[in-house]
Design a protein that fits this description.
Shape: globular
Number of strands: 16
Number of helices: 9
Largest sheet: 8 strands, mixed
Length: about 350
Amino acid sequence: MSVRYPRPLRPGDRVGVTAPSSGVRKELRERLNVAVRDVQARGYEVVVGQCMDGSGHVSASAADRASELMSMLTDPTIRAIVPPWGGETAIDLIPLLDWDQLRQTEPTWLVGFSDISTLITPLTLLTGMATVHGNNLMDTPYRVSEGLLSWLDIVAAPLGHRFTQTPPGRHRTTGFDDFAAFPEVREYTLDSPGTWTRLDGSADVEAEGRLIGGCIETLCNLAGSSYLDVSAFARNESPDGLLVYVEAAGDDAFTICRNLHGMRLTGFFDRANAVLVGRTSAPKNSSLSQHEAVLDALGCLNVPIIADIECGHIPPYMPIVNGAHGRIIHSPSRSELTQILD
């Protein structure tokens, strides 16, 4: 198996929209319409699936969600799939997907983050299909911050494309916009300064490796299973090591610490040349901050650990391609992540 990149999107291609986890409530449907129109403005045809109901925590039964996702992933006329957002229990799809068929089918871009990590990370590890950990459909209308890209830019890039993203220096601390009241909102409120932080030391960092990772709270439940065998992926696809990224959605520091310890014990970080940690607003505990939780669990790896990267639940978003070759540089004067679709 080798990393398989989907064909770059061209005007006229079809983009599938389905909710493998949580759907969209009625009062938020106009925001969904705004986002769909933005994708259409790129010249793509948008196909909205049946699994979109937002009245509960999942959009449909596990069987229906798995069937619709499989149908879109194996439909040669659909070139990319993007969910409205994440959710809570996409893990129930894992045993229902036909992984053998997905290994054989032509790759399709699957985009998303948060609970969608439960799907995109195993998809790359088990089938070699490159996936995009990036801003989801409901966030797509926001104007992209300086130094960053949208998932729409990445899925249209050719094989071999090299792109570099840099931290914009500002992020959001004031919650989320009200999509029901303001469905057309396009400007992030980035109200706080801040850039990347090295947790394990102060020396300059330069590291390379294929990129793999996702949301801690969802991936930790797959750790130790055949669906999250990062070590095997590294041996086969990146013998010189990986750049592993993780991010905390909302669990407190004690929980994140325990989850990262568990993921480390299953070998998730064994081949890491560096660990990238997303910026988070998840709560600290009385004796442990989120940064300290990461160091407690991963400091023994003796590799650079760089935190406050824009790959988590705090806007703005830096898309990361699972499977791409990455090169990270961090110093007092320069911070950047370069990805190559090779």
